[in-house]
């Protein structure tokens, strides 16, 4: 939520002072990949992500001011149509890859049995059992909860409760992480492709022969928005528990023990303040290219904007 809040403030400031209120700022493909790589790096090396991101953000701000002071935007005149198309293609490829990656990841979470027999569906089952050789970690957890293996009604536990007590799933309807759940995965695949084809169809609606020109052009302009509303409504009515975006209920920092102001150092070593200049240079290049090329594409004569 800190990133969303920061992006919102940046977007408002840009709209008020940059002279292009119709340009909506947002993280595009390259910046999104940068954020993901940085987050994984911090997780692997046990660094505070928000503190390091704050350091990089301050360095990026300084470098962007240097670019403005040296009138680096004048270099935009050397950006050719080929560069624009290559950058636009890169953004498209990144978002397509991200979408497909999420879909493949769902196959691991909501696994399905590829070798089942429809005639034997009545005999398929998946139950929670006591772990045959509980680890020290499991025994410690039971002790903290003041229970023993005999106190737990293993057969009556839900999937989440079974995972909480480190139980094991036994039965022909079990995958590695619990019962097979084919409907969620296949419903997500249907939503995925239907959203794509419906938005493509509505985007080209202005060339169709139905309805007056004004209606066709309005539908075409709001094709993506209409598609999302339609598909969310269908998903809600069908009722399959497809994964949803978890939105915080309150407007507060991600960690209740932390305020809105993030220290550039935080729990990280002092040298991260200096080393942050290297990823900041990459981030500056991405933002500069992103903003400048996007502005060039938007301000083309054919777009009348």
From TrEMBL:
Domain of life of the native organism: Eukaryota
A Pfam family: HCO3_cotransp
GO biological process: monoatomic anion transport
Membrane topology: Multi-pass membrane protein
GO molecular-function term, one example from the UniProt record: solute:inorganic anion antiporter activity
Cellular location(s): Membrane
Keywords: Membrane, Transmembrane, Transmembrane helix
UniProt GO cellular component terms: membrane
Chain ranges of the Bicarbonate transporter-like transmembrane domain: 2-305
Transmembrane regions listed in the UniProt entry: 56-79, 86-104, 184-202, 222-239, 270-289
The protein's name: Sodium bicarbonate cotransporter 3-like protein
Organism: Equus caballus (Horse)
């Amino acid at each position: 939520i800190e990133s969303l809040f920061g992006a919102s403030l940046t977007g408002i400031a840009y709209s008020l002072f940059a002279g292009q209120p119709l340009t909506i700022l947002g993280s595009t493909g390259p910046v999104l990949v940068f954020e993901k790589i940085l987050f994984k790096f911090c997780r692997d090396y046990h660094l505070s992500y928000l503190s390091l991101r704050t350091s990089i953000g301050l360095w990026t701000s300084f470098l962007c001011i240097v670019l403005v002071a040296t009138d680096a935007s004048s270099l935009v005149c050397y950006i050719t149509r080929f560069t624009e198309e290559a950058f636009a293609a890169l953004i498209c490829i990144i978002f397509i890859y991200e979408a497909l990656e999420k879909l493949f990841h769902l196959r691991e979470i909501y696994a399905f049995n590829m070798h089942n027999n429809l005639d034997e569906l009545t005999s398929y089952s998946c139950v929670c059992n006591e772990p045959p050789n509980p680890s020290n970690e499991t025994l410690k957890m039971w002790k903290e909860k003041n229970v023993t293996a005999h106190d737990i009604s293993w057969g009556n536990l839900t999937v989440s409760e079974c995972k909480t007590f480190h139980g094991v799933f036994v039965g022909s309807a079990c995958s590695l992480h619990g019962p097979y759940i084919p409907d969620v995965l296949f419903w997500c695949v249907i939503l995925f492709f239907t959203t794509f084809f419906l938005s493509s169809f509505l985007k080209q609606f202005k060339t169709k022969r139905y309805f007056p020109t004004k209606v066709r052009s309005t539908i075409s302009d709001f094709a993506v928005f209409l598609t999302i509303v339609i598909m969310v409504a269908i998903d809600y009515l069908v009722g399959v528990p497809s994964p949803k975006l978890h939105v915080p209920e309150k407007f507060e920092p991600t960690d209740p023990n932390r305020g809105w102001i993030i220290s550039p150092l935080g729990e990280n070593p002092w040298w991260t303040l200096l080393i942050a200049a290297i990823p900041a240079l990459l981030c500056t290049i991405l933002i500069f290219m992103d903003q400048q090329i996007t502005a060039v594409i938007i301000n083309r004569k054919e777009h009348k904007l």
